[in-house]
Amino acid sequence: MKMKRKSWALLTALSTLPLALSTTAAAAAEPTAAATAGSGCVYSPAVPADNFKGIPVFDAKKAAKPYNAVLRTTQGTITFKALTDKAPCTTFSFRFLAEKGYYDRTHCHRLTTQRLYVLQCGDPTGTGSGGPGYSFPDENLDGATYPAGTVAMANAGPNTNGSQFFFVWKDTKLSPNYTPFGQVTSGLDVLQKIAAGGEDDQNAPGDGFPTLRVDFRKVSISSH
What we know:
Structural class: alpha+beta
Oligomer: single chain
Largest sheet: 9 strands, antiparallel
Helix content: 10-25%
Number of strands: 11
Strand content: 25-35%
Radius of gyration: 15 Å
Shape: globular
Order of helices and strands: HEHEEHEEEEEEHEE
């Protein structure tokens, strides 16, 4: 799914994926080195830097520790298991931001209900254009699929991951371009309730702001 960029131009064709950033920021965010699972990660400074909490320094020992993310929302609690063994750079970043309170009091800004079945969150600006002030490379894309319950990164093109991510609330077919880094273990019913509430079609038919507003009251990390 893609995120929007500086022009905030929104991709309206669902077949091209709705979770996007703009191309200007994508170029600015291109990392200088790639991450390989287990070999460390590079987090590169990038714009925008909304609600800036600093840039993480990868710690392989901490990154390897399994954890669950607990997202308490206004529509109910969603918990997912982080795939620390398959996407250590991504899960380390998510843990870093969650522990800094980056996601607290933000809301999910995009719901798709036709062809693609996702809820996109993680932007403190609520516009689909925001980012944490750094980017990092893709992971776990070889043979990636997106069944219901998948948690994956939104991006603006290859290796432009930041803070935005999406939940898959119904089995969906996406190109393997979005790093899967979590699996919902409870709260899929919450996601399905949000989806059933519909969206406002502001981007395109079946693509808009969720009718049932989804605010993150608290996003916390729980070790296994």
